[in-house]
Specification:
mainly alpha, about 90% helix
Length: about 400
């Protein structure tokens, strides 16, 4: 009897342990506030996230200077660490100069354009309301419904101004918001500074870090899974780097051309419109429409003739980008058909909004290529098995 109990206990030990683990995990999941835990973890590792993003963005620039500039200087050829340091320093200086240029030159122009546009709209809307009202009053028709709409519109504008005035009067709440914003900005700046320091170490020791990560994956994953993860990360890195860099270059060129053309069509808001067109151009296919619609509408409020010219200019520019500039700059960088790109943008935008529209295409490209490799490996294994079976049948 004792021997039977021992055998039964050994037989069901695994099941008992599995049940206990499930109970413990269930209690842990139900009693734990995962939202707070995730927020705490994200706040803790935020500098490392910033550092990784900065290092990932600067890595191609650093590699370019390392291979093509400093690496070809004779006194530095055998000094790898010095070449890496100089390349990294140059990359940071270029980014710093670009940030200073944006802050000093572009942002003030955009702010001025937005202020001028807002001022124009606040003066234009009352005039438009008076014009429409006068036109309607001159007509011998029943306009009660239209008058109600106009009154509702006027009441809405007055309510907005009243709300703004009340909020400005609430000094205590305003000061609290200012202090909270100051602490948040200080926290972001501190995390950014720490992230820059972390990115420097990542760029200096990127080969060692990559080898370490590969070693850890190789130690804990089966060989097939290790090969899959390695190929997936390699493919994702190549796809994202190629797509983002090439599309950014393409969008910058389009924004500059649009700014020069807009200086003749609508010079007051040329910088603002160029930034809108350049940013939305990062979205394939739908980007030109997303950026072009508000630009044309704003021009229409100013001058219908300028809106027509703006519409023609945007159409010609997008044709130039789609058939000449885009293929030369990007080529077949992602290898996804137009139907797949449209599907990726719609799904990405539906799930993750604007970010999903920006990054949906490279994510879809990586997933599609990974799935194709999986299907191909399965098909080759099946073909090999069928060939062996046919060979065995032929021998018999």
């Amino acid at each position: 009897m004792t021997e039977y109990i021992k055998k039964s206990f050994k037989k069901y030990t695994g099941l008992i342990l599995a049940v206990l683990v499930i109970i413990i995990l269930y209690r842990f999941i139900t009693d734990t506030d995962f939202t707070a835990a995730i927020n705490w973890t994200a706040a803790l590792i935020k500098p490392f996230i910033f550092g990784f993003i900065i290092a990932y963005i600067l890595n191609p620039v650093t590699g370019f200077f390392e291979k093509n500039i400093y690496g070809k200087i004779k006194p530095l050829r055998n000094k790898k660490k010095a070449v890496r340091t100089l390349s990294m320093l140059t990359s940071f200086l270029i980014v710093a100069a670009l940030v200073v240029f944006i802050v000093v030159s572009i942002i003030p122009e955009i702010v001025s354009s937005i202020q001028g546009l807002a001022s124009y709209l606040f003066t234009y809307l009352p005039k438009a309301e008076k014009t429409v009202t006068a036109a309607i009053e001159g007509m011998e028709t029943d306009v009660n419904g239209v008058n109600e709409v106009l009154e509702s519109f006027s009441d809405s504008i007055n309510a907005i101004f009243d709300t703004v005035i009340k909020n400005i009067g609430n000094v205590t709440s305003l000061m609290t918001n200012v202090l909270e914003g100051t602490f948040t900005a200080a926290s972001w700046i501190l995390n950014l500074v720490i992230g820059i320091i972390i990115s420097i170490y990542m760029l200096l020791d990127k080969e060692a870090l990559t080898a370490r990560c590969k070693r850890i994956l190789f130690a804990f994953l089966p060989k097939s899974w290790y090969m899959f993860v390695r190929d997936f990360v390699k493919d994702a890195n190549a796809t994202f780097a190629t797509f983002i860099v090439s599309k950014a270059v393409d969008s910058i060129i389009i924004a500059v051309i649009f700014f020069l053309g807009c200086c003749f069509i609508s010079p007051d808001y040329a910088m603002l419109f160029a930034c809108v067109i350049g940013i939305t151009n990062m979205i394939p296919y739908f980007g030109p429409f997303i950026g072009g619609v508000p630009v044309v509408l704003l021009c229409l409020l100013q001058n219908p003739y300028s809106a027509i010219w703006m519409l023609i200019f945007i159409f010609i520019l997008q044709q130039f980008d789609g058939y000449i500039l885009g293929p030369r700059v990007m080529g077949d960088s992602i290898g996804v058909k137009p139907m797949g790109i449209i599907f990726a943008i719609l799904v990405g935008g539906g799930l993750f909004g604007v970010l999903g529209m920006f990054f949906g295409v490279p994510v879809f490209a990586v997933i599609a290529r990974t799935f194709d490799r999986f299907v191909e490996s399965r098909a080759q294994a099946k073909e090999k098995k069928l060939n062996l079976e046919e060979a065995a049948d032929g021998n018999t």
